[in-house]
Amino acid sequence: MVATAAAVAGLWGAVLRPRGSGAGTLAFALVLLGVLALLSLRRRLRRLVARWTSFEVTVDGGGISRAVAGFPPIRIARADVAAVDERGAGLVVRGRGGASLLVPREIEGYERARALLAAWAAPPNPGAAGR
Question: What is the pTM of this model?
């Protein structure tokens, strides 16, 4: 927004001011830009809140799934989990087929999901295969 405001002020100074446009023209353009930015921000925040409130992660014995309004659902079967990495935002679960999903730290039950998924990511016991 700052860059756009600077471009409007530069355009006014280079083109409109020499042609007789006063400071009112610049003020009008900057106020209009601010109003449009606030309307856009408000709309984006409403969409973000709607998506966040619809965010659902389900971990069961067969796999993990994520559903969010506006995005296709993702499911990774437990047998297809290739890696579980902890990042600053939460846990990233990667499937062998290329699918991945994020379990954000902010969700309710994050610690339980983290403990369960850590067991999924543990390498299998090589001595158990020969028994």
Answer: 0.57
